[in-house]
Design a protein that fits this description.
The chain contains seven helices and ten strands. It is α/β, with parallel strands linked by helices and 241 residues long. The strands form two sheets. The chain has a seven-stranded parallel sheet with strand order 1-10-9-6-2-3-5, with helices on one face.
C-alpha cells in the first residue's frame, strides 16, 4: 500500500488525476471503476482539462460505477448517473454506451444487483478502481456489517451516510434509504485501487482503516489485503497518523 501525502485538496486532485490518466495513456481501452461524491470532483475536473488540452482521450475507455441510489433515474440531479454525466462524461470524448451505472429505476429491483454484477464480470477486471472513504469506513455503499459482502447487492444506508449525504439534498428526509453497490469482492478484483481522502473529518476513520483490525464493521480495512492500493490524502486527512 502506498500513501501519497498532499498539502491540500487541489494537489490531491492533481496527483490522483495523474494516476488515472497514466492508466488510460498506457492502455487506451482501459476499464475504469469510478466513484461519485465530493472527493473525486477535483480529480474529474483535472481529467477534463487534460482532455481539452489534447493530452488524454477516453474514446476507447469503458467505465463501471460503484453504486446508485434506488429510486433515482438518470435525469434526477441527485442520481449518480446524472453526477457522472455532468461532471465527466459530457465533457470528454467517451462513448456513453460504454459507461455503466446500476439502474436506480430497475423494473425488477431484486434482479438488478445480479444483472449489474454479471455485467461488470463480463467486462473483466477493472484496470483501476477509484474509491472515496465514508466517515463510517464504507467503500462504495458497503456499510459497516457483520460480514463483507462479496457481490453487487442492495444495501440500507447507515444513518451516518444519510447524514453525510444530506448536503446534496434539500433535507435528510429526501436522501434515499437504499442503494445498489458493488460488493467488497467486486471492488477487490480490480487490478489497482486508488483511494482519495480529504479533510480532517476523515482523519479518524483513515487512521482506523490503516492501523486497526481488518473488520467488516470498517469495510475499507479490507483494502489492506489488496496487492496494489494507492491512497492520495491531504495532510488534514492524515493528521491522526
Amino acid at each position: 500500500m502506498r500513501i501519497i501525502r498532499t498539502e491540500d485538496y487541489d494537489e490531491l486532485s492533481l496527483r490522483a488525476a495523474e494516476i488515472m490518466a497514466s492508466v488510460v495513456t498506457l492502455k487506451p481501452d482501459a476499464l475504469l471503476g469510478l466513484a461519485t461524491g465530493s472527493s473525486p470532483l477535483g480529480l474529474y475536473k483535472v481529467l477534463i482539462e487534460k482532455y481539452r488540452r489534447g493530452e488524454l482521450s477516453f474514446a476507447k475507455v469503458t467505465t463501471v460505477n460503484l453504486d446508485e441510489y434506488v429510486g433515482l433515474g438518470p435525469e434526477d440531479e441527485q442520481s449518480y448517473r446524472y453526477f457522472m454525466d455532468h461532471n465527466l462524461f459530457c465533457h470528454v470524448d467517451i462513448d456513453r454506451e460504454r459507461t455503466h451505472v446500476p439502474d436506480g429505476l430497475a423494473a425488477d429491483g431484486e434482479k438488478e444487483p445480479a444483472r449489474y454484477e454479471a455485467l461488470v464480470r463480463s467486462l473483466g477486471r477493472q484496470d483501476i478502481q477509484l474509491l472515496g472513504l465514508g466517515v463510517d469506513g464504507h467503500i462504495g455503499f458497503n456499510e459497516p456489517d457483520r460480514v463483507f459482502h462479496e457481490d453487487t447487492h442492495c444495501v440500507s444506508l447507515d444513518p451516518s451516510t444519510i447524514e453525510a449525504n444530506k448536503r446534496f439534498f434539500a433535507s435528510a428526509e429526501e436522501v434515499p434509504r437504499k442503494a445498489y453497490t458493488m460488493g467488497v469482492g467486486t471492488i477487490m478484483r480490480a487490478k489497482r485501487i486508488l483511494m482519495v481522502v480529504n479533510g480532517e473529518a476523515k482523519a479518524e476513520v483513515l487512521s482506523a482503516m490503516l492501523k486497526g483490525p481488518i473488520d467488516p464493521m470498517l469495510p475499507a480495512s479490507i483494502l489492506r489485503l489488496h496487492r496494489d492500493v494507492t491512497i492520495v490524502a491531504d495532510k488534514a486527512a492524515l493528521s491522526k497518523l
